[in-house]
Design a protein that fits this description.
2 copies of one chain form a homodimer.
Chain A: H1 2-27, H2 43-53, E1 56-63, E2 69-76, E3 78-81, E4 84-94, H3 98-105, E5 108-114, E6 133-142, H4 148-160, E7 173-186, H5 197-201, H6 210-215
Chain lengths: 216, 216
């Protein structure tokens, strides 16, 4: 009986392991539990927390229609299931909106997020450096259709933004992602925190990936 | 006694009239009471309400350091005293931050604001068109030093953001404004609302300017 249990446990663990590896492979960023606000000196963890806890931000593209001006647009996003972020922001955008059509002409983009609407800034002004803000700059890309990553994006977005499931089918909504190339994070006085994209995506933890622990 | 009162009243009215004209002249946008959420079909009033009620947004510039990418940054702003907006967003920015230094090289800019953090969107998702969003596109300019407009900007910003008064003097903070050239407003289904800059700045009201009424 004990042996049977061990074999069963091993099978489940193997499945979970390959499932997690599969997701990692398709979404790049290491999955991470990010429900608790990290210490401000842990720039990577703080950035991941900020991205994971927010549900919306401003997505910026270059607008040819407006003389090449930077055009910001309020969008919803998700980087994963609740409290299980990948660090990579996914979007559900229609080309009826300028942002998606701008990105199809010029991929340069940034996503800007504030800690202020989370309500964790105390009495600080939204522009006070102790109220964190992050700008992820990179390329705004359409997620490959019928790929594992599209499945992941759909699940990540529709879980955090349930009404998206019912948005009009004839509006040509597509899944996009921001391929991050640069990170600008301010979460305290003294200027932006040094933080590479690799540090951000692969944030180290002292324990095994928390995702595994949920299935064992 | 009645005559004296009339003369006194006339003098006060004249002073108020020229005071208001003076402000109008220096800040362009007609001052407007904007505390109550207007009907969604009144695009100009809705846009002015959205700008006046918010205290922060994302200000976008072109970043030469990031290959000409659109760079959004969380900033605080004010378009006037509380419930007395001019429609023109003013900012208090330091060139230690990329946004101000970007703008000194390339003035193209936009300010993006969401209704979502105001808490008036009900259960709508932040990307749902019934949760309003506005993008003001134009030029990000330094306000002329020692001008009436600078006085106005200081008063508008420091009233809504009191801690700004104490921000470090050696950080080279300056007053900026967005000279609006285009308005993108979504506050319901059916795409952006047609709205010219002139309609936005000069929003008509059926009564005399409310500012006068406060002094009579």
């Amino acid at each position: 009986m004990n042996n049977k249990r061990s074999v069963h446990c091993f099978q489940v663990l193997s499945l979970v392991f390959f499932f997690v590896l599969g997701i990692q492979d398709s979404v790049q960023g290491r999955l991470l539990s990010v429900s608790k606000k990290p210490h401000r000196n842990d720039a990577a963890a703080y950035a991941r927390w900020l991205v994971s806890q927010n549900s919306w931000g401003v997505l910026n593209t270059i607008s040819k229609d407006l003389g090449g001006a930077p055009f910001g647009n309020v969008v919803s996003f998700s980087d994963g299931l609740p409290n299980e972020g990948s660090g990579i922001p996914y979007f559900y955008l229609t080309t009826l909106d300028p942002t998606a059509s701008n990105a199809l002409k010029d991929k340069r983009s940034s996503l800007t997020i504030s800690e202020y609407p989370l309500g964790t800034c105390g009495k600080s002004d939204p522009e006070n450096p102790s109220c964190a803000k992050i700008t992820l700059t990179g390329k705004l890309l359409v997620v490959d259709k019928n790929s594992k990553e599209e499945e992941y994006a759909r699940s990540a977005l529709f879980t955090k933004h349930p009404e998206m499931k019912g948005w009009p089918k004839d509006h040509n909504f597509q899944f996009f992602k921001l391929e991050i190339e640069d990170i600008f994070l301010i979460n305290w006085f003294g200027g932006p925190k040094p933080l590479t994209v690799d540090q951000y995506l692969q944030t180290k933890k002292s324990k095994l990936a928390f995702v595994l622990s949920k299935y064992i």
